[in-house]
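User: Let's play a game. I give you a shape written as tokens, and you guess the letters that built it. Ready? Here's round one.
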């Protein structure tokens, strides 16, 4: 099982279907379930692949759902991207009068000034570039390094003026710069399906931090369950019950987070 990455397979499949204009057949459906009245409504199974036609010029759209046994549900709505020739805009402007941000970054202040200078030359040599396209490319296709700056402008001239100020090391209206702080790690734990008989038993005997946090979790659970947290870790039958394995996994995750924190890995957030 792909666990946290399981849903992305459906997203990739749907993106490919949009790209090729083909609805792939539903896999592993030898016989539709009799519990659904397939003769009513507009929902049907794709027993065979078929063309995905575009009607009235509308883009293809689809929903991709991923449902976890733990109760975490995700739904993503995808829309076919417009062809480059279908996008209207005013060349050289901020398209519609709204502000545009050009973001640049580098490893240090000197490199940042050089980056701004090169960007000025590159844009100057291409008068047909749209301000929004440049802004989009800067934030979507380049690494975000520690030394950062953002130039805000309503049109091409304002943006270039700000870039030149940045390149010269001076201040300018609409120019903001700074150094990004080091981000904290985020701990993401898996859900049901990742358990195994005997999990966490070795840590209980080896780590006082882990043992102490598990004991705290056991006390918190004791008023709500009729089983022992540490007692079910080696019980295959008990770990097969949803009402047991999910609280057990929660306790193991909380205790692992405490263990990592004791090693100096202090997370900014935990999920799971």
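Assistant: Ready! My guess for every position:
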């Amino acid at each position: 099982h792909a666990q946290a990455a399981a849903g992305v397979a459906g997203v990739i499949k749907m993106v490919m279907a949009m790209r090729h204009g083909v609805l792939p057949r539903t896999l592993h459906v030898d016989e539709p379930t009799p519990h659904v009245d397939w003769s009513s409504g507009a929902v049907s199974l794709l027993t065979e692949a078929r063309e995905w036609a575009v009607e009235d010029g509308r883009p293809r759209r689809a929903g991709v759902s991923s449902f976890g046994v733990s109760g975490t549900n995700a739904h993503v709505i995808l829309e076919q991207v417009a062809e480059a020739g279908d996008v209207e805009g005013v060349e050289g402007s901020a398209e519609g009068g709204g502000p545009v941000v050009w973001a640049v970054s580098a490893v240090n202040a000197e490199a940042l000034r050089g980056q701004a200078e090169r960007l000025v030359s590159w844009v100057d040599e291409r008068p047909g570039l749209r301000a929004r396209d440049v802004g989009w490319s800067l934030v979507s296709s380049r690494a975000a390094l520690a030394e950062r700056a953002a130039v805000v402008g309503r049109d091409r001239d304002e943006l270039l003026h700000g870039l030149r100020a940045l390149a010269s090391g001076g201040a300018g209206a609409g120019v903001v710069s700074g150094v990004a702080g080091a981000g904290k790690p985020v701990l993401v734990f898996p859900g049901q399906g990742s358990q195994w008989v005997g999990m966490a038993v070795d840590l209980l005997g080896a780590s006082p931090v882990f043992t102490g946090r598990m004991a705290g979790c056991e006390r918190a659970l004791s008023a709500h369950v009729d089983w022992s947290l540490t007692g079910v870790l080696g019980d295959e039958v008990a770990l097969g019950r949803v009402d047991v394995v999910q609280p057990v996994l929660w306790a193991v995750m909380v205790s692992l987070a405490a263990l990592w924190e004791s090693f100096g890995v202090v997370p900014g957030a935990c999920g799971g």
